[in-house]
Write a structure and sequence with these properties.
By secondary structure, this protein is an alpha+beta fold. It folds into two domains: about 60 residues, no CATH class; about 100 residues, Immunoglobulins (Immunoglobulin-like). It is built from two helices and eight strands. Strands 1-3-6-5 form a four-stranded antiparallel beta sheet, with no helix packed on it. The protein has a four-stranded mixed beta sheet with strand order 2-8-7-4, with no helix packed on it. A hairpin with a 5-residue loop joins strand 7 and strand 8. It is flat, with a radius of gyration of 30 Å.
Length: about 160
């Protein structure tokens, strides 16, 4: 008899705890939602999607195209701890101004310098890329320079090579 009462009371206690947790979950949900109902959240989501769609269309409308005079430059044989530079010519082949947002090298021994001003349609500008191999950096070297611009695709990859001896 005691076991039966114990089992029933344990079952009731567990059930009550589960129901309490469900209610807590609902209160947490409403707190996280800022007290908004499901319908209000859906309406806000639709509004956000509209705004995001407008932003993406505006961004797409400002896209252009580009070309490079080369995508690979080979410095040839270079000495450690030496300064080596080259230029990549970037041409705006589209109908909107080309904005080079960022240039980034895959290694600290390579330093690209991006054009500071937009490149007008049909015009070109140069991007300097310097390579300074560190002492101990020997043999064949290949580094990447990533160019981020208002193009599709947004990223273009350039390569520099050298043989350090």
């Amino acid at each position: 008899m005691k076991k039966t009462v114990y089992i029933i009371s344990s079952f009731l206690l567990i059930t009550a705890c589960i129901e309490s947790k469900k209610e807590e979950g609902n209160s947490y949900s409403s707190i996280a939602a800022g007290g908004e109902s499901e319908k209000e959240l859906q309406e806000n989501l639709k509004e956000f999607e509209k705004e995001e769609s407008k932003r993406l269309k505006a961004e797409e409308a400002n896209k252009t195209t580009l070309s490079f005079d080369k995508i690979v430059h080979d410095y040839g044989n270079v000495k450690p701890d030496s300064d080596n530079s080259t230029y990549f010519t970037i041409t705006n082949t589209g109908k909107k101004p080309l904005i080079i947002e960022n240039v980034e090298a895959s290694c600290g021994c390579t330093t690209p310098e991006k054009p500071e001003h937009p490149i007008l349609p049909g015009k070109s500008d140069r991007m300097k890329v310097s390579f300074h191999p560190k002492p101990g950096q020997m043999n064949e070297i290949e580094k990447k320079v990533t160019v981020t611009a208002n193009t599709n695709p947004r990223l273009s990859i350039l390569t520099i090579k050298a043989f350090v001896k």
